[in-house]
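Handout, section B. The chain below has 240 residues.
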Amino acid sequence: MDPAASLTVDELAARAGVTVRTIRFYSTRGLLPPPEIGPRRVGRYGPGHLSRLALIEELQHQGMTLAAIERYLRQLPPDLSPEGLALHRALVASWAPDTEAEATREKLERRAGRPLTEDDLDRLAAMNVLARTDDPDVFRIDPVILHLGVRLLEVPVSLKTLLAAREVVLEHSREAARELSRMFKEEVWDPYRRRESDPEQVETMRTLSAHMQPMIVQALVTAFQRSMREELKASFPDEG
């Protein structure tokens, strides 16, 4: 039995923020793989099930029907890792405006599957997973990365390192966004506006620019993945 498959269906439901009935329904439709069967014939679920539920939730937020979600999931590799599923969710979420939700500390701990210390909350805040409010027991959370943030709490990285990493990511992502926006404006938008005065056509170009966002995000993520893989391979050659 996979040692990572340690959640009962009730625990999975609590971590994912859905009902047990929903999990049963998704399972019958083939949206979730079957659980590992443990002692006493009790089904056990793992990170892959949790990541898949998060992806299904995001696809629903995008307005996709159940049939469309089934088609989307069928196109994914059957052995896609929890991290790969999380990446797909992040890409899907880039299609929509930023969203925030409020959660109590009790709800956060239910999703995390354990109590959260003040240090845990500081680390989640450093990762932009949550922000504190005037009420010490209520937080603004980013549902897209909440699951990943909770998993990163188990990684032995100091808060100082997390804050430094955050600054590196922000600095370079802002620079990339600034340069790409400049290129699009100078090479596409400005020449088009000089040639086209029809407001309807201008609105069409504006819509096109919005649709480019997910394509650019996917290109950036793919490039970053490859670069990271090369850096890790160079730094840890014996790790394969």
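Note. The first strand starts at residue 36 and ends at 37. Compare this with the example in section A.
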